[in-house]
From TrEMBL, chain A:
Keywords for this protein: Cell membrane, Membrane, Transmembrane, Transmembrane helix, Transport
TM ranges: 30-51, 94-118, 130-149, 161-182, 213-234, 271-289
Cellular component annotations (GO), alphabetically ordered: plasma membrane
Biological source species: Shimia abyssi
Location (main, coarse): membrane
Family: Belongs to the binding-protein-dependent transport system permease family.
InterPro entries documented for this protein: BP-dependent_transpt_permease (IPR050366), MetI-like (IPR000515), MetI-like_sf (IPR035906), OppC_N (IPR025966)
Gene3D superfamilies listed in its UniProt record: MetI-like
Record membrane topology: Multi-pass membrane protein
Alphabetical GO biological process terms: transmembrane transport
Superkingdom in the source lineage: Bacteria
Protein name, per record: Peptide/nickel transport system permease protein
Compartments in which it is found: Cell membrane
UniProtKB/TrEMBL annotation, chain B:
Pfam families named in the record: SBP_bac_5
Main location: periplasm
GO molecular function, a single term: peptide transmembrane transporter activity
Signal peptide: 1-22
Sequence ranges assigned to domain Solute-binding protein family in this UniProt record: 71-471
Family from the record: Belongs to the bacterial solute-binding protein 5 family.
Localization per Swiss-Prot or TrEMBL: Periplasm
An example Gene Ontology biological process: peptide transport
Annotated protein name in UniProt: Peptide/nickel transport system substrate-binding protein
Length: 303, 566
């Protein structure tokens, strides 16, 4: 008897994440997006180690050059290498994107789950969400710059100070959609039988959230995350574009785009590269998010 | 030859005829764009060029300067001189006669009381008048009769054309500003935004930092002028957009101060809708050294005031080295092309006043390094020079403008070659030049070590300009951060020269004194590092006639004569 049961071919144990990976692999857009995103991230973070030019080095004799072997993306009006500036700019833009996304995500998930799970907190927290939805980011950032720029830059240095400011500004003005989506999902989940069953065997609130609620709302959170990265990169670009962001010699994709608009007619390739980089990053992350949503939802898995 | 002259005369007369015979308002509407938006229409409360020039559409001085620097009467019958008896023999008073029959735009007559009131308004001890330098040495202003006003100076004033001359010192209406004296001046929003004037236009609507709508003044003294019935004065945006709007798309008729990369401007001009015009005046792009400590660690009453000297810029060797490291010729080539020339002078013109100071034109990085080594500033492990624990780390601010940001990047690189660390900051021009005492980012507050901007003087005499650098005339909390001695420069010997210049009427001697003062601020003390003598480039639509670019007064000085050409 025991022999037969032991030799019977069983399916190997599969974790949830392996299923997700299988599903994701089948999603062509997600795979392409993921590969492009990884290439961009590696390019901007490892590229500067391999590339001989510094992003801020001025070689005035080599200004306004078109693409060449020495400068594949050309040089700008002061003779700075555009490829080096693209890589340095990408580091900032992507770092801002990822950090601001993490901040927005944790804030949003926390508020969303708390509001959905604890009925008493629902009203106040959702009104807070409405309040933040009404905050305009640009005036808010102007005020933040005015109040905190000097203390922050003397405490942690000008670039890091602005980085913290921008990340916080983007973070606290973009968590609300996540919070609303998560709250809605939690409200629906709370009424399900397995939650009732868990409650009946005396599961504590914290365990309930950790074991039953959070894993089930992971899918909308992941999707918000990918959309959040794209959103944060675009917001940072907009701020740099308006001249509100980093110091003028500190390249970011948005600032490169801003600097290049003046030369749009004479040297159109200068707007092309940062524009392409922003679009590619945002698109690839969006496709990745799309694929992840499909893969994380067990109901449409395998379709 | 004679025939040709005759023909030319006839042609000129013919060309002039439509303008001369035009009726008021017959040419419709004109659009003007200034990429810095006016925030107030009262030049006594703002030193920003945008505010002074927009106000010049509405309020006028007694006399203006023409494009050659000569004086022309506006509200006055004539320019008073010693020869015609208007200026007393001892040079201690000047008597202005106002044209008879002049009325304000509200129909009330312009009298000498208004002129006296204007002087009282600016010289009020509690007010922070932005144009106080214009009233330097004024002891009293007397009303002789309805149309005669006499300005008495405490000492002989060889150049008595400070008060009431030029766009910075227009006459305001006593009735309108009566309750706005002293500390109450900034609170009179209605008067400051809608001044009643004698100029060719009156304000219909003033949107702060945005747009001014004006229409022809029905009571303007010349019944045939202005040719335009309405004006839209748009502020804000940037120089690129302004240039494009006039030269390429033709949406606007006049764009002010197109500080653009030379190749960009040349490309725009190919658009064919307008013409860039240039003229050299006294506009100098310069680096201002802060002689006081702008550190945010200091409390608000000591930060950037004379109470706290600057930790390293108070050493002349550092300032000199910063100047030596700069290649001014390259800056001109990159930023201005034909519209600029390298200079070491704060007063680059008129030629008789310009010092022959050209030492700074050659870049000398090795010399600058040697100078700093000698002065005891040694490079640390991070490549930045320091002495007694003070690192030469500079916060270098300017307004947001592509040429200025290129200059910042270049100068930062040169300074890094002499072991100076530079942090760059650019601020929105409307904020930077806005003069708002509540903002930390104005050029007057100077919460930075070095700042870059351009400034010039009205008229042909630099006396008022050079008197800005008097001890005590610096912006400070007690004067609501108004004041013109931006560097907080203070040298009793210099003050003595200001006084001496104020008592000298012999022209040769005046030239000599001005040159000496210019040298004290530049090559002797390196308080101000002039970079580029900027010709002013503006642009007008090809359909706009009568524009004469004036570098010695408001650019809109003759807007009453502007008209349409077909």
């Amino acid at each position: 008897m025991t022999d037969t049961t032991n030799t019977e071919p069983t399916k190997p144990h599969r974790s949830q994440w392996a299923d997700v990976w299988d599903q994701l692999k089948a999603h062509k857009g997600a795979m392409a997006g993921g590969v492009i995103f990884i290439v961009i991230v590696l390019g901007v973070f490892i590229g500067p180690w391999l590339w001989p030019y510094d992003a801020t080095f001025i070689d005035i004799r080599a200004r306004n050059q078109g693409p060449s072997f020495a400068h594949p993306f050309g040089t700008d009006q002061l003779g700075r290498d555009t490829l080096a500036r693209m890589m340095a700019g990408g580091q900032t833009s992507i770092a801002v994107g990822l950090t601001a996304m993490l901040l927005a995500l944790s804030l949003g998930s926390f508020v969303g789950i708390t509001a959905g799970f604890f009925k008493r907190l629902d009203g106040p927290l959702m009104r807070l969400t409405d309040l933040f939805l009404a905050l305009p980011i640009l005036p808010l950032l102007l005020v933040m710059m005015l109040l905190f720029r000097d203390p922050l830059s003397s405490a942690v240095g000008p670039e890091r100070g602005i980085f913290i400011l921008i990340v916080i500004a983007i973070g606290i003005t973009s968590w609300m959609p996540t919070a609303r989506i998560v709250r809605g999902d939690v409200l629906a989940l709370k009424e399900r039988e397995f939650i009732l069953a868990a409650r009946s065997i005396g599961t504590s609130n914290s365990n309930m959230i950790k074991r039953h609620i959070l894993p089930n709302v992971l899918s909308p959170i992941m999707v918000s995350a990918t959309l959040g990265i794209a959103n944060a990169i675009i917001t940072e670009s907009a701020l740099s574009f308006l001249g509100l962001g980093f110091p003028p010699d500190f390249p970011t994709w948005g600032r490169l785009l801003n600097d290049a608009t003046q030369y749009l007619q004479d040297y159109p390739e200068r707007v092309f590269w940062p524009g392409l980089a922003i679009s590619l990053t945002v698109l690839s992350v969006n496709y990745l998010g799309d694929g992840l949503r499909d893969a994380l939802d067990p109901r449409i898995r395998g379709r | 030859m004679k025939a040709k002259t005759l023909m030319l005369g006839a042609a000129a007369a013919f060309a002039m005829a439509p303008a001369a015979m035009a009726e008021r308002g017959s040419d419709g509407h004109v659009n003007i764009i200034y990429w810095q938006a006016p925030s107030i229409l009262n030049p006594y409360l703002s030193s920003g060029t945008k505010d002074i020039e927009s106000a010049s559409l509405v309020i006028e001085p007694l006399g203006r300067y023409d494009p050659n620097g000569a004086l022309v009467p506006y509200l006055a019958e004539e320019i008073p001189t010693v020869a015609n008896g208007g200026v007393s023999e001892d040079l201690k008073s000047i008597t202005w006669k106002i044209k008879s029959g002049l009325v304000w735009s509200d129909g009330t007559p312009v009298t000498a009381t208004d002129a006296k009131f204007t002087a009282d308004y600016c010289m009020h001890p509690e007010g922070g008048c932005a144009q106080l330098a214009k009233f330097e040495g004024v002891e009293s202003v007397e009303v002789i009769d309805d149309l005669t006003v006499k300005v008495n100076f405490s000492e002989a004033k060889p150049n008595p054309y400070g008060p009431f001359m030029g766009g910075q010192s227009p006459i305001i209406q006593a009735a309108q500003f009566a309750d706005c004296l002293g500390a109450k001046a900034p609170e009179c929003t209605d008067a400051n935004f809608n001044p009643i004037g004698t100029g060719p236009f009156v304000v219909d609507e003033f949107k702060t930092n945005d747009v001014i709508s004006l229409s022809a003044n029905p009571n303007y003294r010349d019944a045939a002028k202005p040719a335009f019935a309405t004006v839209t004065f748009k502020g804000g945006g940037d120089a690129t957009a302004a240039g494009r709007a006039v030269l390429e798309t033709g949406e606007f008729d006049y764009a002010w101060n197109l500080q653009l990369a030379p190749d960009v401007l040349a490309k725009m001009a190919e658009g064919g809708k307008g013409t860039p015009i240039a003229a050299f005046g006294s506009l100098v792009e310069r680096l201002e050294m802060n002689m006081t400590n702008p550190s945010p660690d200091l409390d608000a009453d000591t930060r950037a005031t004379v109470a706290a000297p600057h930790p390293f810029l108070s050493d002349i060797n550092v300032r000199k080295a910063l100047s030596m490291a700069i290649d001014r010729n390259l800056l001109v080539e990159i930023g201005y092309g034909q519209a600029g020339r390298p200079t070491c002078n704060l007063v680059p013109g008129p030629a008789v006043y310009a010092s022959d100071n050209t030492d700074c034109l050659t870049q000398d990085i090795a010399g600058a390094n040697a100078l700093l080594d000698e002065a005891g500033w040694v490079k640390g492990a991070d490549g930045v020079r320091a002495k007694d624990g003070v690192r030469i780390s500079i916060l270098y601010q300017t307004s947001t403008n592509a040429v200025r940001q290129d200059f910042q990047a270049l100068i930062k690189q040169w300074w890094s070659e002499i072991g100076v660390e530079t942090e760059l900051r650019n601020l929105n021009a409307s904020v930077f030049f806005g003069g708002d005492p509540g903002s930390p980012d104005t050029f007057q507050k100077f919460y930075a070590d070095v700042e870059m901007y351009a400034n010039n003087f009205d008229g042909t005499d630099p006396q008022a300009y050079l008197s800005m650098y008097r001890c005590g005339n610096e912006p400070k909390p007690s004067s609501q951060w108004q004041g013109e001695n931006i560097n907080r420069f203070c040298d009793p010997a210099y003050d003595a020269l200001i006084d001496e210049l104020g008592q000298t009427s012999d022209l040769e001697k005046r030239y000599e004194l001005s040159k000496k003062m210019n040298d004290m601020l530049t090559k002797d003390s390196f308080t101000i590092l002039p970079l580029v003598d900027r010709g002013r480039v503006s642009a007008h639509a090809n359909s706009l006639g009568g524009v004469i670019l004036n570098t010695w007064d408001s650019e809109l000085w003759n807007i009453a004569d502007w008209h349409r050409v077909n």
